[in-house]
UniProtKB/TrEMBL annotation:
It is found in: Cell membrane; Membrane. PROSITE patterns: ABC_TM1 (PS50928). Its main location: membrane. Belongs to the binding-protein-dependent transport system permease family. It comes from Paenibacillus chitinolyticus. The keyword Transmembrane applies. It holds the Pfam family BPD_transp_1. Residues 19-202 form the ABC transmembrane type-1 domain. The chain crosses the membrane at residues 20-40, 70-91, 135-160, 180-199. This is ABC transporter permease. The keyword NAD does not apply. It is a multi-pass membrane protein. GO terms for cellular component: plasma membrane.
């Protein structure tokens, strides 16, 4: 452990930079997944036949081995940051689509009927009633997707990406445990912190409903 703390004290600026890269990759992927996943979840809830197709495709992507998916994306998009973000985006889609779908289908039909009774259009019902009531479920999807993305991002260096995975793989290749832990421990702490923060946000949403 002494070597680990010595390595941290000597390279903390570089590690901060790698942590920043890791966070940026995950944030971009989650943002893209929200922009695409929430509308797909709405479509899945509104049109059940189409929904089964959307959920099946998203599930296939989710269970695809992460390294294999990134390698396939690398063939199409090349090495680097963009390919990693696209891969993380694809892995983040399923939790967001599924939880949007579940949230919308759990809305009490009586509330929807009451909205129709006061003259709300379908669009107004969606934006003013159904989506706000589904926010805790969507927040759960974001929470799961973010933790998954943080973990998958550690293999980014294998396809030319950055992030904390660089320290992990450098530590493995150089048989340097201090360097390996310098990448693995911050990545694990980042996942735990993200899960905790988003969990608190989710609880506040449940309380405010």
């Amino acid at each position: 452990m002494e070597l680990f703390f010595q390595y941290i004290s000597e390279n903390w600026l570089d590690l901060l930079g790698l942590t920043y890269d890791h966070i940026v990759m995950v944030l971009l992927a989650i943002l893209m997944a929200l922009i695409v996943g929430v509308p797909l979840g709405i479509l899945a809830a509104r049109y059940r036949r189409l929904g089964s197709v959307i959920l099946t495709v998203a599930n296939i992507i989710q269970v695809f081995p992460s390294l294999a998916l990134l390698v396939l994306l690398m063939i199409v998009f090349g090495l680097g940051f963009k390919t990693v973000v696209i891969g993380l985006f694809l892995y983040s889609l399923m939790p967001i689509i599924r939880n949007t779908f579940v949230g919308l289908t759990q809305v009490n039909p009586a509330i929807t009927e009451a909205g129709r009774g006061v003259g709300m259009s379908q669009l107004q019902l969606m934006w003013k009633v159904q989506l706000p009531l589904s926010l805790p479920f969507i927040a759960t999807g974001v929470r799961v997707a973010a933790v998954i993305a943080i973990g998958v991002a550690t293999i980014a260096p294998l396809i030319g990406g950055g992030g904390l995975g660089r320290e992990i793989y450098s530590g493995i290749n150089m048989d340097n445990s201090a360097r390996l832990y310098a990448g693995a421990i911050p990545a694990a702490l980042l996942a735990l912190l993200t899960d905790f923060v988003l969990g608190q946000v989710q609880k506040r949403m449940h309380v405010s409903r």
